[in-house]
Amino acid sequence: MPERIEFTTVDAALVEAAAQVMEQAGRARLSLVTAESCTGGLVAAVLSDAPGAGKWLHGGFVTYTEENKATVLGVSRALIARAGAVSEPVARAMAKNALARSPADVSVAVTGVAGPATDDDGTPVGTVHFAAARRGCPTLHRVLAFGDIGRGPCRYRSVREAFALLSEIIDQACADAAGSARARSDRSAQR
Fold first, then answer.
1. What are phi and psi of 156, to 5 degrees?
2. pLDDT digits (tens, 9 = 90+) for 15-50
3. Are 178 and 172 in contact (CB under 8 A)?
């Protein structure tokens, strides 16, 4: 008998939260990219529903497995082995490497265990690490323990938290970040 199928509901509230982030990114003239594991591309998918996505969203990396985190994003296999795929160092590396592999100004990364079982490292179900990186700024990190609330609710809350962290880093005043964004915008306008 197959496992019970769970899914994540995308509702108006989630799309409205994405629209707020996209509007904020547009005002700041900062483009976005995602690096996702347990959310399976849902952060990028919901952001793509928001007005302005065609201009400010570059897309996303879905790196569900440890192998894909290493191959696609270049996260060190040694780091994954040492810290675990669901950890602060890996979330930070995912966010930084997503920026390095895209033209985006800001990235958000999500890696966690949505359930129904723990991962190979024994990480408790509902543990999710988030990181947001922005060129010229320190990388932000947050970890939440949602508990065993089900895959759908865990992923939904993870998407909401990813938007909150994106909003926080977009608003962050960073040394040379504003100048870098303006310079890229000026170069784009000259083409």
1. -60, -50
2. 999 999 999 999 999 999 999 999 999 999 999 999
3. no
